[in-house]
Amino acid sequence: MADRPNVLVVCGRNKRRSRTAEYIFKNDRRFNIKSLGLSAKSERQIKEKDVLWADLILVMEDGHKTRIAADYRSIEIPPIEVLQIEDEYEYQNQELIELLTDKINASVNVTFQL
């Protein structure tokens, strides 16, 4: 692991939830963050190199975790945590920001003991 851990945040299309997470934490000095989507329609779609880059993958729904585990079963996958945030918020919605801030801080602090 690098000096600062790499956190990959993934949702369906990387339009609202994961992109908001990247926006919130892009200047955080504790870790590096990148957001991607699972859909072929995503502007930034997850690739094997992204999974290899990550020290922790945070996904929004159980199905996202299942898909990553299946799609990348031939490589070593870092821990994947499900944040349980439904796709019902717009990009940078205040409630979404609060949920992501709380859940990502908790996951990162526990995983990396920051």
Structural descriptors:
Rossmann fold; 4-stranded parallel sheet; Ptyr_pPase_sf; about 40% helix; single chain; alpha/beta; about 110 residues; UCP029416_PTP
Walkthrough of the structure:
The protein has four helices and four strands; from the N terminus they run E-H-E-H-E-H-E-H. The protein is α/β, with parallel strands linked by helices. A four-stranded parallel sheet has the order 2-1-3-4. The protein starts with 5 loop residues before the first strand and ends with a helix.
Query: Judging by the overall fold, what is the CATH architecture?
Result: 3-Layer(aba) Sandwich
Strand content: 15-25%
What would the CATH topology be? Rossmann fold
Query: Could you describe the largest sheet, including whether it forms a barrel?
Result: 4 strands, parallel
The overall strand count is: 4
Q: Would you summarize the structure shown here?
A:
The protein has 114 residues and is an alpha/beta fold. The chain contains 4 helices and 4 strands, in the order βαβαβαβα.
